[in-house]
């Protein structure tokens, strides 16, 4: 297997460890900022294949990561389903939030797939442009995380409004989660058909759920999505990222059964190695994005600690969340050099 990321996600211990970074295509790159200005709106950048291809390729050309992740956004799914999404400078994404008594009947997965054809065209173009050793990752937001935007109309902190909606309108909310399971499967399947070799499911707001709701709205949807993807595409690897899952993480890893679990920066590495990696499951993560901004000795110490903790099993080096816009380019280069020079004893 020539692509080291695929080897690690298949359960192999790879030396040196493969590396890619969440949000590796983005605002920390001057060439991305120039491209973003040229594109107009953020969604125009996502929906114009040649621009999305360029944004995806920029960090590969500059740093030679072991994987490229398609430049897109988790909110293309509700946008495609029929819930209008806008990205406003300084405000982030804005949607018309669902309210009490709302119905999901007007949303259409067929319309979503048609609307997102430019995204799948970008995947096809990337397969032609990427170096042969570079894996291509597609992604989608997990149903719970996407639901929080669809209910609240924007990003939030504790997602109390979405939880209240789920408690007060359980049938409507269950219908929304079911719709998003099917929409996520359709979107990821279309990316796989277009050429991605790995998919990541981002449940960025999983940590805002109590235990029983976590099981119902984060774990069970992920389990269903992963099982169906494994059934349809056994050669494709699936990474799940339940950010903030905390003590529920080993349960999630075991029952979700993704090929790899991505760890946020709060997860103790020794605990994750014993609870997840020692069972043969790949772990991904979990460098603090802030230490990448700091660079120098703090960066090297943190990277070495993570590499050492996960040295005895399958591991993909990554951040615990997305790269920060103020990250110096030289620190990214330092990190890649440190990871690739490291060798396990």
Write up what this structure looks like:
The protein has a single domain (4-341), classed as Alpha-Beta Barrel (TIM Barrel). Helices cover 51% and strands 11% of the residues. It is built from 16 helices and nine strands. The protein has helices spanning 4-9, 30-39, 42-47, 49-63, 76-81, 109-115, 117-129, 143-152, 160-168, 170-194, 211-232, 249-256, 269-275, 289-294, 296-309, 329-341, and strands at 67-69, 85-88, 92-95, 135-141, 198-203, 237-242, 260-262, 282-284, 315-316. The strands form two sheets. Strands 1-4-5-6-7-8-9 form a seven-stranded parallel beta sheet. Strands 2-3 form a two-stranded antiparallel ribbon. Strand 7, helix 13 and strand 8 (282-284) form a beta-alpha-beta unit.
Offer a concise description of the structure.
The chain has 345 residues and is of the alpha/beta class. It has one domain: TIM Barrel (Alpha-Beta Barrel). It has 16 helices and nine strands.
Radius of gyration: 19 Å
Mean pLDDT: 96
Query: How many strand elements?
Result: 9
Euclidean distance between termini CA atoms: 23 Å
Major sheet attributes: 7 strands, parallel
Low-confidence stretches: none
The CATH class label is: Alpha Beta
CATH architecture: Alpha-Beta Barrel
Instruction: Bin the strand percentage.
Output: 5-15%
* Helix and strand sequence: HHHHEHEEHHEHHHEHEHEHEHHEH
Structural class: alpha/beta
Silhouette: globular
The total count of helices amounts to: 16
Helix content: 40-55%
Largest sheet, spatial ordering of strands: 1-4-5-6-7-8-9
